[in-house]
């Protein structure tokens, strides 16, 4: 059996790498469409200040993109180094969207980024705008294919397990592509990226306005960011509701844990705002809820119940017992592939194979599992409630706080009053970290809430790891964290340096008043 320390270290290393990587990704996704908007205005009006805005914000975008690529490549390598059995078990399915992402999206994105930076004097206005649009499409296509892969981990449709190859095999490529969980995750994630890009531009523009420097440049940037940010944060909230529905359909355990819903409540269930969670006794000491809301989000109905944790555990206990039968039948088929009795038994129980494999965390032979071990496996099927509950609420709270900020910022631009409200500019500046915190919490909820599975309901996490030494993991973990911290410091240093320099870093001078060459 794989040691728990090895599994935890492998998880920690992947989590650290992924969370570092996602410090760069949302800004790349969000900034690129702001560049499209700014350059489109330049092409339509010929006003050079919009060209300089595109070039200046594009410079900050480029710094972020370069460092984001470095972390992303390392992340993909870990599937082979740290999660070898996972790669073997589901590589035919999981590898397809990642390969398409590299061949279709990343090459397009990288090529267009080169033309974006070096094509200003070689391409016409319209041609360069087309390059920027294609760069934006490439960036979003990269996100799409990666999130299709992740969505399949959350909801493994279009595939089935083959006892002949001992692997998951794809049976319907288009079911994988149009997986409802993947599509909801894509639109929600890219919208969060748009909010991040808008907040970045809004915050830096606010700093310029507070300092009363590059005013005309900053006012235009502030106006674009406020409008784009307001539309984006509304999209995040609306599409978050759709994500909640797909979780309710495909991952009821995660939904129950996020809501600290221990008991099945009469339909439609209420949305718990806050609660005092008692995990030891598996109950809430007290809670405040809004009637009906969770039932409408999770089921789109007023009559369908959302199962509570206790009911889910009872169902999972039955699935584990049926999974024992599936594991035994699979062992018989491995010994004799033409065993018709074993094949019939396996086909009847293979939907619960993953639940039977949960027992291998504690025993090599699932038939040796005692009632106590089975109960431990049952408890493993539900992640810890407290961190999921509060991570989700902090994320949502930050989302609504950003909605208020972008709404006020947009309103101030309509009244041409943003400079008359220093409190608004200071609020925008202090809110700069908010979208990153919300994005990281969103990924925590998505990935931690899937435990104990790497492939939900199919492959347990403890079976997915490579056979590595614990010492090597400690060493590589320290190396990754150290290296990525250096990259993060470099990014922040360069961002602060060029943000302080402002558009003057382009050699065009200051924009303290309307430019004469407009």
Tell me what you see in this structure.
This protein has 17 helices and 6 strands. The chain has a two-stranded antiparallel ribbon. It has a two-stranded antiparallel sheet with strand order 3-4. The protein has a two-stranded antiparallel ribbon with strand order 5-6. The chain is globular, with a radius of gyration of 25 Å. The mean pLDDT is 91. The protein has helices at residues 4-45, 48-81, 84-118, 125-154, 173-177, 180-211, 215-250, 252-258, 293-299, 309-335, 340-349, 353-357, 371-380, 385-414, 422-430, 434-448, 470-501, and strands spanning 159-162, 167-170, 271-278, 283-290, 453-455, 459-460. It is mostly helical and 518 residues long. Helix 3 (84-118) runs antiparallel to helix 4 (125-154) and helix 7 runs antiparallel to helix 14.
Summed up, what is this model?
This protein is mostly helical and 518 residues long.
- Look at the helices and sheets and give the structural class: mainly alpha
Largest beta sheet, briefly?
2 strands, antiparallel
Q: Summarize the helix and strand pattern as letters.
A: HHHHEEHHHHEEHHHHHHHHEEH
Kindly report how far apart the N and C termini lie: 70 Å
Binned strand content: 5-15%
Strands, total number: 6
Percentage of helical residues?
over 70%
Provide the residue-averaged pLDDT: 91
Order of neighbouring strands in the sheet with most strands: 1-2
Spatial extent as radius of gyration:
25 Å
What ranges have pLDDT less than 50 throughout 5 or more consecutive residues? none
């Amino acid at each position: 059996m794989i040691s728990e320390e090895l599994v935890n270290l492998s998880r920690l290393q992947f989590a650290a790498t992924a969370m570092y990587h996602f410090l760069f990704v949302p800004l790349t996704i969000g900034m690129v469409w702001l560049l499209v908007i700014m350059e489109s205005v330049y092409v339509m009006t010929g006003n050079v200040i919009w060209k300089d805005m595109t070039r200046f914000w594009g410079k900050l975008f480029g710094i972020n993109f370069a460092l984001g690529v470095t972390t992303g490549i390392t992340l993909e390598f870990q599937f082979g180094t740290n999660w070898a059995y996972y790669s073997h078990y589901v590589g035919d399915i999981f590898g397809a969207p990642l390969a398409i992402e590299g061949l279709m999206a990343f090459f397009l994105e990288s090529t267009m980024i080169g033309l974006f930076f070096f094509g200003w004097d070689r391409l016409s206005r319209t041609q360069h705008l087309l390059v920027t649009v294609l760069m934006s499409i490439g960036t979003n296509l990269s996100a799409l294919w990666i999130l299709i892969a992740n969505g399949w981990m959350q909801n493994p449709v279009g595939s089935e397990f083959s006892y002949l190859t001992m692997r998951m095999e794809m049976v319907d490529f288009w079911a994988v592509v149009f997986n409802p969980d993947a599509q909801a995750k894509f639109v929600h994630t890219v919208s969060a990226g748009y909010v991040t890009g808008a907040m970045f531009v809004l915050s830096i523009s606010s700093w310029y306005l507070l300092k009363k420097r590059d005013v005309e440049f900053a006012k235009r940037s502030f106006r674009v960011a406020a409008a784009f940010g307001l539309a984006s944060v509304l999209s995040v909230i609306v599409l978050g509701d759709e994500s909640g529905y797909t979780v309710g359909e495909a991952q009821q355990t995660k939904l129950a844990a996020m809501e600290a819903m221990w008991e099945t409540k009469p339909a439609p269930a209420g949305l718990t705002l806050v609660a005092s969670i008692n995990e030891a006794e598996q109950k809430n000491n007290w809670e405040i809820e809004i009637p009906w809301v969770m039932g409408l989000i999770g089921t789109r109905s007023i009559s369908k119940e959302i199962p509570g944790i206790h009911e889910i555990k009872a169902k999972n206990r039955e699935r584990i017992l049926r999974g024992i039968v599936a594991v035994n039948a699979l062992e018989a088929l491995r010994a004799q592939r033409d065993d018709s009795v074993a094949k019939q038994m396996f086909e009847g129980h293979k939907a619960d194979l993953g639940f039977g494999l949960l027992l291998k965390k504690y025993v090599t032979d699932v038939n040796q599992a005692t009632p106590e071990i089975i109960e431990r496996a049952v408890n493993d099927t539900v992640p810890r409630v407290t961190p999921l509950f509060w991570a989700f609420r902090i994320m949502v709270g930050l989302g609504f706080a950003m909605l208020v900020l972008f709404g006020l910022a947009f309103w101030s631009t309509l009244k041409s009053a943003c400079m008359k409200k220093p409190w608004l500019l200071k609020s925008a500046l202090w809110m700069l970290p908010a979208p990153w915190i919300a994005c990281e919490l969103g990924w925590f909820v998505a990935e931690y809430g899937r435990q104990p599975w790497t492939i939900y309901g199919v492959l347990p996490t403890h079976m997915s790891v490579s056979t590595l030494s614990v010492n090597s993991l400690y060493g590589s973990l320290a190396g990754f964290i150290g290296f990525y911290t250096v990259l993060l410091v470099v990014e922040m240093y360069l961002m602060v340096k060029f943000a302080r320099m402002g558009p003057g870093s382009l050699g065009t001078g200051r924009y303290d008043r309307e430019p004469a060459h407009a």
